[in-house]
Design a protein that fits this description.
globular, 6-stranded antiparallel sheet, Maltose phosphorylase, domain 3, 10% strand, 597 residues, two-stranded antiparallel sheet
């Protein structure tokens, strides 16, 4: 029996085991209600069973993410708290991968690997924790306004949204998976901040937005727009709130931008040194029929035989939308619920419009949107909104019917609870040996390719025999030290010689000879984008070092200052709390007791 069929059988058995367990619990403890929150977490484990398989995925970006994680880990070990340069990738020529790729998932993988897990297992732990947290976040967000049962229903719909499973098992987009987890928390803390001005809630809102910026900048940009619209809606809906209250969100947004400046500032100001404009110039749209139906296994498999992906909304999700519209027309909702449903349906309609080719003029007019690249990424927000609508629907429809709909939402995805196949022979050792050549084999992140190299053939396909080579002349070269951002050599030059240091140039690579900065060339037609320089006869200590630009130093400083301010703010809150409790304690203790201290 092939792996995919085995995985389906295992998924069915896992589902039946959970059902039997719940029924057994109700039989043994008939008077005890099952905690919906605990049940939601148990249900969220079902699509994660496949992660227990040994090895890497046959398709998707799991292996590519392992390569990136290995280099990220190496860079931090070498003393780069904020990695920028991936020195062992691209056939050891390196490239500025970590200037442009979202860092949050790789910091999480760093932590998991640091405490002892393999890189492959660390990626899988990131996937699992992101998936579980997404359900938890949705539960608490919806519970805030619609109650526990609605929160449970929304959690189910968010977890088992088809695009969520496509992201997890077929694309393995760890940045989007982290965004799935952080999105409901961002809405939750923004909602709480609007309702109740609290220092702790303010800090939590800042942290959630900060992490979202680091998880996926394209997603976070759309998220900020939706949060602003949501905040205005809440202020209009709740009469005790005023539109002016939205201004309270501005400090939270500014703080989160300050904290994450070390990432987004270089992305904005240094993308001009890359081919990013070429690679993200076109937006890829979803076809209307793709949103409604999957082409494989009677519509219930979300990945084709050649790795094609389905981008459907979900059959049960469409049912929920239809029921909400029907009840809205029939005027079955209370005034407050009606406004909620109308708000989310309008957002949903707007997202549907942006998903389709008919919205191309919008994407063309707003240039910053082109960084989104693929409109199917908006399905993350579609999944979020349909899940909230399912929770609202649960306030109006019989519980048994809603639970049956939840069951359908889960079962419609059962063929997608795991990647098609894992390759158990692939482990960290195998991938580590492939690290230098992984970039040309698929790891390469094209928007980070320096602009001085050929955009049609950006990656090196051969590992150089030596990191420093003599092009013309005569010299003896001894390599003294090499880490990703610093290369040291001892060079004895017999007569004027030209050298090629097999590293791609990107600002601010610098070459010094005996502490004197040398002019470098990286536009030689024979070696485009590669560092070359010239030396007169003599003995030299050559240092080739990747230094921070003004932008990177400024962004690091802004983030550092923001962290310091936030830390001092948190410290002041704790001091006030301690002083408050000590005063209360002094009032409660009798004077005779105080004298004993």
């Amino acid at each position: 029996m092939s792996d995919p069929y085995k995985m389906v059988i295992i998924s069915i058995l896992a589902f039946l085991t959970l059902v039997i367990g719940v029924l057994a619990y109700k039989y043994i403890y008939p008077k005890k209600n099952i905690s919906l929150f605990i049940l939601l977490i148990l249900i969220s484990l079902l699509p994660l069973v496949s992660l227990l398989r040994i090895g890497s995925y046959e398709s998707g970006d799991l292996t590519q993410n392992v390569f990136k994680s290995m280099e990220f880990y190496n860079s931090i070990q070498q003393g780069n708290l904020i990695p920028r340069w991936a020195g062992n990738l691209n056939a050891t020529y390196g490239y500025p991968l970590f200037v442009f790729v979202y860092p949050l998932p790789f910091y999480v993988v760093f932590f998991f690997h640091f405490i002892g897990f393999s890189f492959i297992s660390s990626i899988k732990l990131l996937i699992a924790s992101s998936f579980i947290l997404s359900g938890v976040g949705m539960y608490f967000f919806v519970k805030e306004e619609f109650g526990k049962f609605s929160a449970f229903v929304s959690g189910i719909f968010y977890l088992f949204a088809p695009y969520h499973l496509v992201d997890m098992h077929f694309r393995v987009s760890i940045g989007e998976l982290a965004s799935f987890a952080l999105l409901p928390f961002s809405f939750l803390f923004v909602h709480k901040l609007l309702i109740k001005k609290s220092s702790i809630i303010f800090i939590l809102a800042v942290i959630s937005l900060f992490l979202l910026f680091l998880a996926n900048p394209a997603i976070s940009f759309i998220c900020i727009i939706l949060i602003a619209i949501y905040a205005i809606f809440i202020c209009i809906q709740k009469k005790e709130r005023k539109i002016i209250d939205v201004i309270y969100l501005i400090p939270a947004l500014l703080f989160s931008l300050g904290l994450s400046a070390f990432y987004w500032m270089p992305v904005i100001f240094e993308s001009k040194f890359t081919h990013q404009a070429i690679y993200v110039s076109q937006i890829s749209f979803v076809k209307f029929q793709e949103l409604l139906y999957s082409s494989w296994r009677y519509g219930f498999l979300f990945q084709g035989p050649k790795g094609e992906l389905s981008f459907l909304i979900g059959y049960v999700q469409i049912l929920v939308i239809a029921l909400c519209i029907y009840l809205l027309i029939k005027n079955q909702f209370t005034k407050i619920r009606k406004s909620n449903v109308m708000f989310y349906l309008i957002l949903l309609l707007s997202l549907f419009f942006l998903l389709l080719p008919i919205s191309s003029f919008v994407w063309d007019k707003i240039s910053i949107l082109k960084n989104f690249q693929f409109t199917y990424r908006l399905l993350l927000f579609v999944s979020f909104i349909t899940a909230v609508l399912a929770g609202i629907l649960a306030t109006k429809i019989n519980k048994k019917i809603i639970l049956f709909i939840c069951l359908l939402a889960i079962l419609q995805t059962i063929l997608n609870w795991g990647n098609r196949r894992t390759i158990p022979q692939i482990n960290d050792s195998v991938l580590s040996s492939q690290l230098p050549m992984s970039t040309s084999a698929g790891e390469g992140f094209q928007p980070a390719a320096p602009k001085w190299i050929d955009p049609d053939n950006p990656w090196q396909k051969n590992i150089p025999n030596n990191h420093l080579e003599v092009l013309r002349g005569k010299a003896e070269i001894t390599e003294l030290e090499r880490i990703s951002t610093r290369h040291e050599y001892r060079v004895n030059v017999s007569y004027i010689s030209n050298f090629k240091e097999n590293t791609l140039y990107f600002p601010n690579w610098q070459v010094t000879a005996n502490n004197k900065i040398l002019p470098i060339n990286f536009t030689d037609p024979k070696y485009p984008g590669v560092i070359t320089f010239q030396l007169e006869p003599g003995s030299y200590k050559i240092i080739v070092e990747f230094k921070n630009t003004i932008v990177r130093n400024s962004s690091n400083t802004l983030s550092g200052v923001s962290f310091l301010i936030l830390f001092l703010y948190l410290l002041s809150i704790l001091i006030r709390k301690v002083n408050f409790f000590s005063k209360v304690l002094n009032k409660l203790l009798p004077s005779s007791s105080k004298s004993h201290f």
